[in-house]
């Protein structure tokens, strides 16, 4: 499967990237760096750094637009840390950015490989919307699109009704859902109602370290001092532990428990294996004007608008199965990359 990844890296975006790098059945053909959790240049730097840590082959990383289509950028360092990767301090990299923009990466890649590219968006939809303006045939040229975004019959995480990725750039999201009306393949949409059931716990990190053969095997907890940094031997496991521990602290500060919602890696897993998700077709539109509801995804499940469905919304999954896959795949990958060195 040839995947174009569009991310706002981001702690959970980082794990989505690792999940795909670890997947023998996936080839990442390019990474679009979208402004969202942190600024676009920081997203791009994080993507390049993760590729280095994973000793990945050359993968094109393109810089996205600095701001959403119609509103100023809002970032969320309180959720993802000062650099977007929690407490992790990713080493400097000598990898460089593509001369192409993220929108150009989308258009050129999909045009050159009609029917072959699966797009996975785990950030705001700014660059995909810009690409659609340049190439309106993109929905027909893509093999499939998977989106982490929206909240369906469920509260938002940014406003009472809106989810972060959609709320950062509602105009872009509206353009994307409109563009996929009548497309041969409906986008698969992973909304908060499902991704908030993907609860990562300290035990999952412990199992990841065990699976990777990383020592010492650590179990992080809410009483760890803020200055604690992982000392486990495998660099992938070490940086993931530092990143995710920040996400645990963030969720705990909102009284959600000492856990972290793994929105984006779940979308990556569904991209590779749609059978992990139960879906239901609906027509999705994005509210752009509501004084209280701007950025809300509205799903018409029963055809009240008289419009064809433009999304397959994920309505069910097996979180335990997801975590088995995450731990096995990323754990084995971490061990394979560093082997005896760690
Ligand atoms: C989404 O918002 C971001 O903060 C996460 O990376 C995820 O993509 C969840 O609402
Ligand atoms: Ca994200």
UniProtKB/TrEMBL annotation:
InterPro entries: Inosine/uridine_hydrolase_dom, IUNH, Ribo_hydro-like. It holds the Pfam family IU_nuc_hydro. Keywords: Glycosidase, Hydrolase. Residues 3-323 form the Inosine/uridine-preferring nucleoside hydrolase domain. One of its GO terms (molecular function) is hydrolase activity. PANTHER family: INOSINE-URIDINE PREFERRING NUCLEOSIDE HYDROLASE, URIDINE NUCLEOSIDASE. This is Nucleoside hydrolase. It comes from Nocardia jiangsuensis.
């Amino acid at each position: 499967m040839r995947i174009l990844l569009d991310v706002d890296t981001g702690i959970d975006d980082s794990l989505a990237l690792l999940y795909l790098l670890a997947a023998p059945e996936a080839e990442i053909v390019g990474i679009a760096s979208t402004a969202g959790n942190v600024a676009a240049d920081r997203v791009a730097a994080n993507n390049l750094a993760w590729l280095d840590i994973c000793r990945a082959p050359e993968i094109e990383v393109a810089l996205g637009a600095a701001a959403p289509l119609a509103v100023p950028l809002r970032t969320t360092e309180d959720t993802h840390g000062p650099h977007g990767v929690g407490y992790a301090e990713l080493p400097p990299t000598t990898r460089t950015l593509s001369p192409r923009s993220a929108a150009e990466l989308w258009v050129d890649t999909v045009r050159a490989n009609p029917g072959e590219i699966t797009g996975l968006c785990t950030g705001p939809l700014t660059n995909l919307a810009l690409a659609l303006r340049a190439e309106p045939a993109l929905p027909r040229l893509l093999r499939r699109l998977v989106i982490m975004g929206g909240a369906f019959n469920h509260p938002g995480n940014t406003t009472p009704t809106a989810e972060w990725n959609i709320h950062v750039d509602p105009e872009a999201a509206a353009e994307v859902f409109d563009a996929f009306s009548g497309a041969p393949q409906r986008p698969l949409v992973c909304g908060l109602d499902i991704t908030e059931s993907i609860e990562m716990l300290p035990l999952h990190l412990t199992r990841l370290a065990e699976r990777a053969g990383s020592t010492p095997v650590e179990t992080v907890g809410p009483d760890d001092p803020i200055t604690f940094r992982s000392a486990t031997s495998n660099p992938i496991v070490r940086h993931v532990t530092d990143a995710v521990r920040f996400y645990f602290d963030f969720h705990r500060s909102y009284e959600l428990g000492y856990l972290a919602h793994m929105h984006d890696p779940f979308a990556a897993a569904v991209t590779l294996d749609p059978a992990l998700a139960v879906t239901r077709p609906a027509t999705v539109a994005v509210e752009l004007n509501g004084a209280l509801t701007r950025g809300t995804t509205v799903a018409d499940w029963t055809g009240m608008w008289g419009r064809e469905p433009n999304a397959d919304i994920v309505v069910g999954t097996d979180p335990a199965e997801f975590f088995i896959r995450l731990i096995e795949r990323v754990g084995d990958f971490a061990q394979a990359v560093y082997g005896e060195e760690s």
